Amino acid sequence: MAQTKRKRRSKHRGTAAGTIEARGRTGRPPTAEERKKQARLDARERRLNTPPTWDGALKRAGLAAALMFVFLLVTSKGNIAASVLFAVFAFALYVPSGYYLERFLYRRRQRKKAELR
């Protein structure tokens, strides 16, 4: 009886130098949606594993203070001095509080990750 099944390929292939390389992924290739999901998870993991910086805290505080300024400018009927003063106060408050909050959360995540290992 003739053989109907294809013969299985070898799992490894040798190189001229004598080293053996694994073939890599042999299953079905991931779909575009699965690749996007994995890329999103990898990006999230990278973001959560980077320690906080003062530069990041400054940028976040600047954005929050700018939004606060615009909101106060609209709601206080054009009182620019009060809006600027409050935005500067908010910026000065948001920079250190944002940095230390991020640092606390980062350290907590790292502790939990170390416990799981």
Shape: elongated
Share of β-strand residues: 5-15%
Question: Which H/E pattern describes the elements?
Answer: EEHHH
Distance between the termini: 54 Å
Radius of gyration equals: 27 Å
Question: What average pLDDT do the residues reach?
Answer: 85
The count of β-strands is: 2
Q: Provide the low-confidence segments as ranges.
A: none
Helices and strands: which structural class? mainly alpha
Main beta-sheet annotation? 2 strands, antiparallel
* Oligomer category: single chain
Question: In order across it, which strands form the biggest sheet?
Answer: 1-2
Estimated helix fraction: 55-70%
Number of helices: 3
Explain what the structure shows.
The chain is mainly alpha-helical and 117 residues long. The chain has a two-stranded antiparallel sheet. The protein has a domain of 65 residues. Helix 2 packs antiparallel against helix 3. A hairpin with a 5-residue loop joins strand 1 and strand 2.
Q: What is the topological layout?
A:
Layout: E1 12-14, E2 20-22, H1 32-48, H2 54-75, H3 80-116
Helix pairs in contact: 2-3
Short structural description:
This protein has helices at 32-48, 54-75, 80-116, and strands spanning 12-14, 20-22. It has 117 residues and is mainly α. The protein is elongated and about 95 Å long.
